[in-house]
Amino acid sequence: MATQDAAKTIDSLRLPKPKMDALLKRADEEATGAGEGSSASRRRLQGARAVVSIAQMGVEATYNVPMREISDDGMAFLHRAMVHPKTPCTLHLALKDGEKIDVVGKVKGVRHIEGMIHDVRVAFDSPIDLAGLRGG
Hints:
This protein is mainly β. It contains one helix and eight strands.
């Protein structure tokens, strides 16, 4: 799904796969228990990566992040820092036909998972068609 130039992105979490899988599972269980998530159809994406640009405190940085889920109106991913609600974000996606799109949204909520790791939930400004995504 990621499309930005890899040399310009920051790997948000460099963790061994078993640790990453455990954190994604924990975040998913906590979100389900809290009744969080979109009312739209959600697709679980444990193991998938995304490229997300985050503009915070006057600085924009682009990160390669582990995705937890995506829906037509938002997504959730793990990140190595707290991101304030309403922070603008852009998700860079690849479509099945090879085209690339940028999906703009704002942070809807953030939950601390452990250490510096946070579960970040983004609401898209406009819905997307999940069927058109690569891997979808």
